[in-house]
Amino acid sequence: MILTKKLHIAVLMGGWANERPVSLMSGEGVAKALEARGHKVTRIDMDRQVAARIAEAAPDIVFNALHGVPGEDGTVQGMLDLMGVPYTHSGLATSVIAIDKELTKQALVPRGIPMPGGRIVTSAELHESDPLPRPYVLKPVNEGSSVGVAIVTDESNYGNPISKDAKGPWQEFPELLAEPYIRGRELTTAVVGGKALGVTELIVESGFYDFENKYTDGRTLHVCPAEIPEDVAEACLHYALEAHRILGCRGTSRTDFRWDDEQGVEGLFVLETNTQPGMTPLSLVPEQARYCGMSYEDLVETIIADALGDTPSGTTGGQDGAQGQA
């Protein structure tokens, strides 16, 4: 998709979340792509005066390249709604739900999307007893990019029960989501403009697909398309598109999976749907778009066109929208 007219676009990036460095990389990549297409770009590093700065710039649209709170949780979306400024990616209600892993489960599981069980626990509870049989996973309820994720096993050096002195997310977050650990493989599927693009497998050099492995060059191998059975690939495409539709996502989203390859398609579980996926050189949405024949510049313009109502979004169609997967 190529925009038919040149626009003034404010690229909103940075902020103060844990994912600030990633957002800055995403925003700069987007800004350069838009400038290469002849658009006027105003770069805005999120701060407490952001509303005044956007009003002063008076852009045609804001490209929201923020990750985490407050750019991905509905805060910025609500502000822009009040200002009457169009913006990319999902709106207020979708953002509030999708960033909260427990709310996401409440929205998706009753609609047939398989997700791990588990429950919310206070960090203080963890120092008294395990919330689930080991191994299990602990993660913040509303952070992205695998920030603050810990896998608790019998062999881990966290102690049993977890020691207050052990380094982990319980020292930073008052509440955590505890989920059963699913052995197997990391898969992900991007949706752009109402179409599921493909399936990528993520193979880490060591450990698991955490923040460091995601954004350190050479630490994670991306296999695109994933070398997986056809029924599993089709299920990934279907679930990603359904999650995008049910949550009401706009523009682009990325759904992450854990797949127990000893269980076939029954071992496939959705972990989360990211409403503002990264746009860095190592990010997965640009990679899948490239695999489907869409340049980075075309991807950026497609997201903007979708926000302006120039392309269909959130449509159903299952595999009709898939490209490149057997």
Strand content: 15-25%
Contiguous runs where pLDDT drops below 50 for at least 5 residues: 311-326
At the first level of CATH, the class of the largest domain is: Alpha Beta
CATH topology of the largest domain: D-amino Acid Aminotransferase, Chain A, domain 1
Overall tally of domains:
3
The total strand number stands at 13
Structural class: alpha+beta
- Mean pLDDT, rounded to whole units? 90
CATH architecture of the largest domain: 2-Layer Sandwich
The percentage helix is 25-40%
Which series of helices and strands comes N to C?
Answer: EHEHEHHHEHEEEEEEHEHEEHH
Distance from first to last alpha carbon:
24 Å
Describe the structure.
By secondary structure, the protein is α+β, with helices and mostly antiparallel strands. It folds into 3 domains: about 80 residues, Rossmann fold; about 160 residues, D-amino Acid Aminotransferase, Chain A, domain 1, CATH 3.30.470; about 60 residues, Dna Ligase, domain 1. About 30% of the residues lie in helices and about 20% in strands. The protein contains 10 helices and 13 strands. A hairpin with an 8-residue loop joins strand 12 and strand 13. Helix 1 crosses helix 10. It is globular. About 45% of the residues are buried.
Relevant terms:
10 helices; alpha+beta; 21% strand; 326 residues; four-stranded antiparallel beta sheet; single chain; Dna Ligase, domain 1; D-amino Acid Aminotransferase, Chain A, domain 1; Rossmann fold
Secondary-structure map with pairings?
Elements: E1 8-13, H1 20-36, E2 40-45, H2 50-57, E3 61-64, H3 75-83, H4 92-99, H5 101-108, E4 119-122, H6 123-126, E5 136-139, E6 150-152, E7 175-180, E8 185-192, E9 195-196, E10 200-204, H7 211-215, E11 220-223, H8 230-247, E12 252-259, E13 268-274, H9 284-291, H10 296-307
Parallel strand pairs: 1-2, 1-3
Antiparallel strand pairs: 4-7, 5-6, 5-7, 8-9, 8-10, 8-12, 10-11, 12-13
Helix pairs in contact: 1-10
